[in-house]
From TrEMBL:
<dbReference type="InterPro" id="IPR025329">
    <property type="entry name" value="DUF4235"/>
</dbReference>
<feature type="transmembrane region" description="Helical">
    <location>
        <begin position="12"/>
        <end position="29"/>
    </location>
</feature>
<keyword id="KW-1133">Transmembrane helix</keyword>
<dbReference type="Pfam" id="PF14019">
    <property type="entry name" value="DUF4235"/>
</dbReference>
<keyword id="KW-0472">Membrane</keyword>
<feature type="transmembrane region" description="Helical">
    <location>
        <begin position="55"/>
        <end position="73"/>
    </location>
</feature>
<keyword id="KW-0812">Transmembrane</keyword>
<protein>
    <submittedName>
        <fullName>Membrane protein</fullName>
    </submittedName>
</protein>
């Protein structure tokens, strides 16, 4: 029973952390892209003036940054819940 309550209680926290992670990851990606490419905007997949290589490189970089930020935020959130409740969220 306590496991179910802990999981339900963590759900809204996890959602908010996920939204925050997406915002942070987007900001980090924009800055890294500016440094890596010298361009202020990352290419869109439908931008006909950009080549496949540039578009796929931008997508891979964006995905990697998002995954790392999301994992760090999820892990930090779970650790915080354990500190507050004494239980790891399921």
């Amino acid at each position: 029973m306590a496991k179910v309550v802990n999981k339900v209680a963590y759900k809204p926290v996890g959602i908010l952390l996920g939204i925050g992670a997406g915002i942070v990851a987007g900001a980090i990606f924009k800055e890294v892209w500016k440094i890596a490419s010298g361009d202020n905007e990352a290419p869109s997949a439908t931008d006909e003036d950009r080549g496949w290589g540039e578009i796929l490189a931008a997508a891979a970089l964006q995905g990697a940054i998002f995954a790392v930020v999301r994992a760090a935020v999820d892990r930090g959130g779970a650790t915080g819940v354990r500190r507050l409740t004494g239980r790891w969220p399921s």
